[in-house]
Amino acid sequence: MKAYLFKSPGGIDKLQLSEVNRPEVGPKEVLIRVKAIGINYAEVLSRKGQYSWAPPRPYVPGMEAAGEIVEIGSNVQGLNIGDRVIMGAQFGAYAEYMKSKAHLVYPIPEDWSWQEAAALLVNYITAWVALFKLGKTQPGDRVLIQAAAGGVGTAAVQLASKAGARVAGTASKPNKLGLIRQLGAELAINYQEDDFEKVVRQEWSAIDVCLEVVGGEVFKKSKALLAPFGRLVVTGYASIPLKKWKPWTWWPAWRDAPKAGVMEMAVGSFSLAATHIGYLTDNAEITQTIWKELLGFVLKHEIKPVIGKEYPFEQLSQAHAFMESRKSVGKVVVNMGDPINEK
Fold first, then answer.
1. What residues make up the domain containing 311?
2. Of 1, 84, 68, nearest to 32 (Cα)?
3. Which of 303, 308, 332 is closest to 159 using CA atoms?
4. What is the CATH number of the domain that holds 69?
5. In whole angstroms, what is the distance from residue 112 CA to residue 116 CA?
6. How far apart are CA 331 and CA 65, in angstroms?
7. Is the pTM of this model over 0.85?
8. Across residues 50-59, what is the average pLDDT?
9. Residues 258 and 152 in one domain
């Protein structure tokens, strides 16, 4: 089968199509013919050698895809060949066929396209865990979402606003600000023109919940905005300057990493939490519970992912370049030769 076999870190030139063997399916695994792939910023970091959850190289990158089941392990129940499903895994999505554990395979809602399905899993579960499992978001809470026009950001704006929270989001361009307002944000702040900390203090005085993905000064200012009993949840470190082969980047990477001392939290009566949903994927009970909660909420409120741009499979490296340019909004999706938004 055709796949992007990742052998060494670097630029987008490291993403080259190769011929590899089709994955063999174990007793508790499922194999799909991939129809659409969701691209995640974590995969950009992984390509650059900056992602701790990446498996040993060489491997086929990609953590989520939508497709049709073509093979089922002997111990798998509740799934059938031909089912349209969403699949999550640590790696393997940048290929014509992908396999994963059966508890990370979920039916696609009837009226959803392959592309919409491929855009749901990683971003929305990350936002759900951050906002509700750790952030304990309640109706009326003042919620600040950093990088609100990205994949996790747009998901978080939709989920928090539909849950009755007051939402503020940061973004860098007029089109991005318009998008997050459209998705339910009360405040849309251009962080390139305005100091988001000053704007939030002026409008709200403080925040109850923050979903933070950037690190550095953005994290520090977000933390400073927390009201007593506020909750800040870190889901990423997009500004990380680390290059493992350049020792002079090690100190800035540590200095700017999100952190707070216990005494600092005690004085402010706030809490700091963090999540990486990849480390939850071995726990079938937790992942199934989160999926059921999320899907029920999404369907009840008629939420669908924001798809910012689509690329054909042969141009997957360009999808990486576009996401890395920070020009993207919502989810970047790669299609396996199907018409755009085919259902």
1. 2-120+305-335
2. 68
3. 303
4. 3.90.180.10
5. 6
6. 12
7. yes
8. 92
9. yes
**Pair 142, 263 in one domain:** yes
Distance in angstroms (rounded) separating the CA atoms of residues 140 and 123: 23
Among candidate residues 180, 177, 141, 128, the one with its CA nearest the CA of residue 290: 128
Do residues 227 and 272 share a domain? Answer: yes
Instruction: Report the DSSP pairing between strands 84-88 and 105-107.
Output: antiparallel
Q: Round to whole Å and give the CA distance between 35 and 113.
A: 10
Integer CA distances (angstroms), 236 to 119, 120, 211, 214, 257, in order:
18, 18, 9, 6, 10
Taking the CA atoms of 89, 94, 99 and 102 in sequence, report the sign of the dihedral they define.
positive
What is the distance between the alpha carbons of residues 294 and 109, in angstroms, rounded to a whole number?
A: 13
Provide the pLDDT for residue 337: 76
CA-based end-to-end distance of the chain? 24
Q: Count the residues in the chain.
A: 343
At residue 298 the predicted structure's pLDDT band, cuts being 50, 70 and 90, is: very high
Give me 332's structure tokens: 């970047």
